[in-house]
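Now for one specimen:
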Amino acid sequence: MGILSAMNIGSDGLKVHGMRLDINSRNIANLDTPNYVRKIPLVVSTERNSFLSVMNQMKETTFGAGTLPYSTGSVAMAGIVEDPTLGDKIYKPGHPDADENGYIRASNVDPLVEITDAILAQRAYEASLAIMTMSKSMADRATAIGS
């Protein structure tokens, strides 16, 4: 894996986990908004190898030759889905969003879940930033050797 590949992986991670943090912040901001439905980001690996194929490759190569296969994949945002769980029904007959029976649907956002997801996204963002920093450092050292 080259330095540019590592930079691309780090860059993809920064973009995706930054978007995750944006979605978490929107969910938290709409915690008390009636009829708001929590959004869930779908993050996928761009690695084309399945777990089974990696394990088979390790069985054949790693345990025989002592080398570890490296991953060339990254992460990508596959989309955003809405949480299917329903929020609580609240009786507010004068509210503009009330149904024919006078009920509104409260937001289905759980602040503890959102804060936990935001912490995980922040740590993944920091890990991607560390990849970028290390790749830059290696590139700087490589250019210093050549001069």
